Amino acid sequence: VQLQASGGGLVQFGGSLRLSCAASGRIFSNNVMAWHRQAPGKQRDLVALITEIGTTNYADSVKGRFTISRDSAKNTVYLQMNSLKPEDTAVYYCNLYQFRLGNRYEYWGQGTLVTVSS
Fold first, then answer.
1. What single string gives the DSSP state of each residue in the chain?
2. What percent of the chain is modeled with pLDDT above 70?
3. pLDDT of residue 4 exceeding 90
4. Centroid of chain to Cα 73
5. Residue whose C-alpha is closest to residue 61's, from 42, 79, 40, 84
6. What is the band of 29 on the pLDDT scale with cuts at 50, 70, 90?
7. Residue 71 pLDDT > 90, yes or no?
8. Is 86 exposed, middle or buried (0-12, 13-18, 19+ CB in 10 A)?
């Protein structure tokens, strides 16, 4: 399985960006897609996740500003980021994990840099 992320860039405080991540390869029906981020000198943290049936979960810091969605037919996950703040500056990574026959398989995409200027 390969994950290809896109959509990062430079945006001003209060602006918006939309990240996309397309998964290819052997994707099982029981899976979760997610976005994580890692700011310089900090650990990688979960931003949002979405299950195959559309259940979502968000970090408190992005609730009400970010929206995760997916197009299962395209095996693609999106992250709409609104009202961006400088503290949202980080490398954003997409992540897929899936389950089959009691085994968990996890994959990561390359990061995409989001920079929010003040």
1. -EEEEE--EEEETT--EEEEEEEES---SSEEEEEEEE-TTS-EEEEEEEETT--EEE-GGGTTTEEEEEEGGGTEEEEEE-S--GGG-EEEEEEEEEEETTEEEEEEPPPEEEEEE-
2. 100
3. yes
4. 18
5. 84
6. confident
7. yes
8. exposed
